[in-house]
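Run log, item B.
One chain of 293 residues. Sequence copied directly from the ordering sheet:
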Amino acid sequence: MSRLRGVAGVLGLVMLAAVPAGLAATQAPTRTVYVSVMDSTGAPVGDMKPEEFSVKEDGAVRTITKVDRASEPIHYVIMVDTTPAYGRAVNVIREAVKAFTALLFSVDPKTQFSFVEFGGVSMTVMDFTSEQAKIDASLGKLMPKSSESVLNEALVDVSKTLAALPPTTRKVILTINMEPTIDSTNVQARQVAEEVRKSGAIVWSVALQEGTRRDSNRENLLKGLAANTGGRWVVLQGPSQTNLSAFLRSIAANSFSQYAVTYTPGDTPTPVKVTDVGVSRPGVLALSMKWSR
């Protein structure tokens, strides 16, 4: 845990995914909730005991069958706003993202990253890779475009890509937005939210803002996605590499410190809407995804 406690600004992070209990047809199905637990200082808690966790579905207590440290692979999609304002922050974003990926590789070399840009068009700049050299080269391809944002369209595309991955894969969407800006797509927020929900991904979002005006529709969408998936939405004034790097390190710390809490879901005719994870140890906190897949 010494590596983790050196990471600033640790936040809670939870991911929810349905997994099979085993090959035996007679065995009851299970679900696994990926949980990051933090103490009052924001540092990850690495010695939680199984009996300290509790799980509820729509308020009904469920039986926990197993608690392990999460070891499933993580796939990150880093989405970059390459509208004209990106030109003010090119070097800041490149250096912060490069350090972020290197930090995650230092703990788990199997971590996968993909880059998507959404200035004028939703386009995958780099498919999933675990090679730092490819990441560095792809960062150099992210250049400002003389177009408006198509964030909503890109979020739908990314969510569909992540939904196709194995259900035990931990999935994270990170959006780096330039503000102020206006989204020019006709994709509605409701559709975006539904696709993100089905993907099982956590959404983290940071806005690098000049001045005081923000796109309220984009803000409300990203706030809601972060709140419902267990991520976080933040605004940083101006292109500050120090602040952006600190935010990215907080995401990395959560990835390092997750528990896999497996439980038996309820046998109900209607879909579960809310899954909550609690911890009984005083002074620590676990945040759970607000919606289920």
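Observations after the first pass:
- The two ends are 31 Å apart (CA to CA).
- Confidence is low (pLDDT under 50) at residues 1-26.
Flagged for discussion on Thursday.
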